[in-house]
Design a protein that fits this description.
Elements (H helix, E strand, L loop, with lengths): L1 H4 L5 H22 L6 E6 L7 H11 L3 E6 L16 H20 L9 E3 L26 E2 L5 E2 L5 H4 L13 H6 L1 H9 L4 H4 L8
Parallel strand pairs: 1-2, 2-3
Antiparallel strand pairs: 4-5
Length: about 210
Amino acid sequence: TSQKVMLKINFEEAVANVKEFIRIRDEHFAKTGYYCRVTFQLTFMQNNMHELADIVKLASQLGVDRVKGHQLWAHFDEIKHLSMKATPKSILQWNEYVKQTKEAQEKFRKPNGEKVILENIIPLQKNENKEIPESYECPFLEKELWVSATGNISPCCAPDEMRKTLGYFGNIENTSIEEVLQSDNYQNLVKNYKTIDLCKTCNMRKPN
C-alpha cells in the first residue's frame, strides 16, 4: 500500500533504513544516555488505514516508539473521497480501525516490552465530517510555529491558501519569535480560534 500512496518509494529499502537508524540510535543511547524517539507519522485515508494495526505491529518489531498521524486535509475535490470522514459508513470503519489498533498496541510490544505510543488515533464522532467538537484543542498555538522556506512565519500547518486566512505573522528575517507571540494578531488567534471557520474543521485539533 505504501508504494501505491507514495509513488517511487521502495518499501523494503525504507524498512531497512529504519532498522539501521534505530541500531545507531540504540548504540548512541548506550554510550551517552541520550535517547532519540522514533515516530511513524501517517495521513489517515481510506486507501491505507486498513493496515493501521499492521503498522503498529511493524513499529513494535522495529523498535519504533510512536505511531501518530492526522485525518486527511480534504481541501480539494479530487481527494475528498479518500477522507475517513467522507460518509457515516467511513466514520464507522475508522472507529473499527481504532479498536483493532488499540488491540495491536496491547498485543505487540517493542523489544524492551514497552507499548508503542499511539497519538491522534482516536474515534471519530458521527457529525465530525462537518465540525470538530468545540472542546478539542489546537496542538500548535503557544507551542509551535512554522517557518517556510522563504522565512514566512505561520501558526500551524494548515494548507497554505487556507492558512493565509489566519493573517500575516511576519518573516523570520525581520521578525523575532517573541514579537510574533506577543503580537495582537497572534494573541487574537489564541483567544478566538474556536470561532474561526478554518479552525472549526481542523483535523489537527484533539481532546485534552
